[in-house]
Amino acid sequence: MQLRLDALEAHLAKGLAGLYVVYGDEHLLAQEACDRIRATARAAGFTDRSVFTVERGFDWSSLLGASQSMSLFGDRQLVELRIPSGKPGKEGADALKALAAAVNDDVLTMITLPRLDAATQKAAWFTALSDAGVALKIDPVERAQLPNWVGQRLAAQGQRVVAGEEGRRALAFIAERVEGNLLAAHQEIQKLGLLYPAGSLSFEQIQDAVLNVARYDVFKLNEAMLAGDVGRLARMLDGLRGEGEAAVLVLWAVVEEVRTLLRIKRGVAAGKPLAMLVRENRVWGPRERLIGPALSRVTESALEKALALAARLDRQVKGLSGGTPGNHRNDPPPDPWDGLFELAMTVASPAKAAPVPPPRPRSAATAAARRPA
């Protein structure tokens, strides 16, 4: 059966299943879920533990043997199988189906997988596992949900932000500083528990304690573009630059989004349904919700001009001439990162896009690093 993460505690309180499949890319939440299952298993007498990791040449017979054998000491066994790729292959698929068909009361099996696409979730081996036991999907905490998640974690350790606007600002501050890094958010919340007693936390206390531990993801940049969140876009570009990300990779990510928007824009103009175009262009997750407003905000002409700018930026970041010979007006800014900001702004805020980008907010640490000695 399928089980939501927030229903795990209630499920474990009623008793253990013989088989668990934990899948998803939110590593902190997956680890916590596995820890809760392990703890419940130990309390139920599953004290003997075997761990298998599927790699090239993995011997699936060893897994089947462990799942069917008794411990030398008569203890009940916890067998953990980790499949980092999420692809067991044909031999593995057959072994997993056999495993699902032979659930043993003295053996508890826990299988961990990364995020699985829809096709994999419909595969015979995964269906057999979820039918025989419990499939626990670990959904990511989206950025919009992160302030509430932080608030819930603070409440779990007896702390809370002050009521009203100051409290909302404090939660947003934490979410902004740990963008893309849920483990870092967890660590910062634990640190607040060590620094301050139970009760209310002011914005100033949180600001003093929380470090800038953001892990900027070049692929999350597209979400900021589509949402028209100029402040976040600027912070992410500055963060990617500070972390040493290659400008050519950032350019590729931005250009792919521009091309996707242009294909969908032209498809809509040709009379095709937006839902069909979104599927054809492999737009899903948060981007699927943001694509409609972005399409209404930007014109086809602006997207075509953005691709022309991207072509010049591509030459620039590769150390070639960035501009059009004899046409300095169309040259990208001297700093390619400013050019990347200008390119992203054609989608994020077309009305503010200009040949020379407006000043971008930068962290105090970044500003200090660039200040002449």
Beta-strand percent range: 5-15%
Q: How many domains in all?
A: 3
Helicity, in percent? 40-55%
User: Which stretches are low in confidence, meaning pLDDT under 50 for 5 or more residues running?
Assistant: 322-328, 354-373
User: Could you report the average pLDDT, rounded to the nearest whole number?
Assistant: 84
Record field, number of beta strands? 8
- Highest CATH level, the class of the largest domain: Mainly Alpha
CATH topology of the largest domain: Zinc Finger, Delta Prime, domain 3
Q: What is the CA-CA span between the terminal residues?
A: 62 Å
Q: How would you classify the helix and strand content by structural class? A: alpha/beta
GO biological process, one term: DNA-templated DNA replication
GO molecular function, one term: DNA-directed DNA polymerase activity
Catalytic activity: DNA(n) + a 2'-deoxyribonucleoside 5'-triphosphate = DNA(n+1) + diphosphate
Pfam families: DNA_pol3_delt_C, DNA_pol3_delta
Question: Would you mind describing this structure in some detail?
Answer:
The protein has helices at residues 8-14, 27-43, 60-68, 89-101, 118-121, 124-132, 146-156, 165-177, 182-195, 203-209, 221-227, 230-242, 247-269, 274-280, 286-297, 300-317, 336-348, 364-370, and strands spanning 2-3, 19-23, 48-53, 77-82, 107-113, 134-137, 159-161, 199-201. The protein has 373 residues and is α/β, with parallel strands linked by helices. It has three domains: 2-137, P-loop containing nucleotide triphosphate hydrolases (Rossmann fold), CATH 3.40.50.300; 143-209, Helicase, Ruva Protein, domain 3 (Orthogonal Bundle); 221-362, Zinc Finger, Delta Prime, domain 3. The protein has a six-stranded parallel β-sheet with strand order 1-6-2-5-4-3, sandwiched between helices. Strands 7-8 form a two-stranded parallel sheet. The model is unreliable at 322-328 and 354-373 (pLDDT under 50). Residues 362-373 have a biased composition (Low complexity).
